[in-house]
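Exercise: predict the fold of this chain.
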Amino acid sequence: MTRPDLNQIVRTPDGRPEVEQPKWRRDFPIDLPQDEYVARRDFTKFMVLTSLAFAVGQVWIGIENWRRRRRGQPPIAEIAKVSDVPIGSTITFAYPQPHDACLLVRTGELTWLAYAQECTHLACAVIPEVDKGQFRCPCHHGYFDLTTGRPIAGPPRRPLPRITLDVRNGAVYATGVEERTA
């Protein structure tokens, strides 16, 4: 198949001859065949580059998954001494990474709760309101239940990630992060 001589083919958008076209269209002509022409070579270049981009993306996703698996379980870390946290109070701590802010709440003599401090809506820091039994997100007025971490009002739909705890030898330890969807 040979490529047609595009200079010989002039087609107007409405099909009327060129002399009957309005002045603005004659001043700014659109050569539709030339405008719609896509060569096989151009199409092949597009397909090769698009496929290459998808292949690079798949390799990148594979590398990220491999790196995520290598991290393994988060370490066990001491958060606080039992005597340092009175009943009905909270403290903040970082777990498992230094930039992951969390809240430790002591609601009873033997009752401890810990959650990530980022709201699951848009990652604002939630504020504990122990006397009301909730966490409040001041950005969009989201509320989470203090005992379960589940959303009870506002835009958040997912519960706060729970930090699993272990209390032994007079200290509270963080042992893992439990991501939950409901």
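Check your answer against the key: The beta strands are 77-81, 90-94, 101-106, 112-116, 127-129, 134-137, 142-145, 151-153, 162-168, 171-178.
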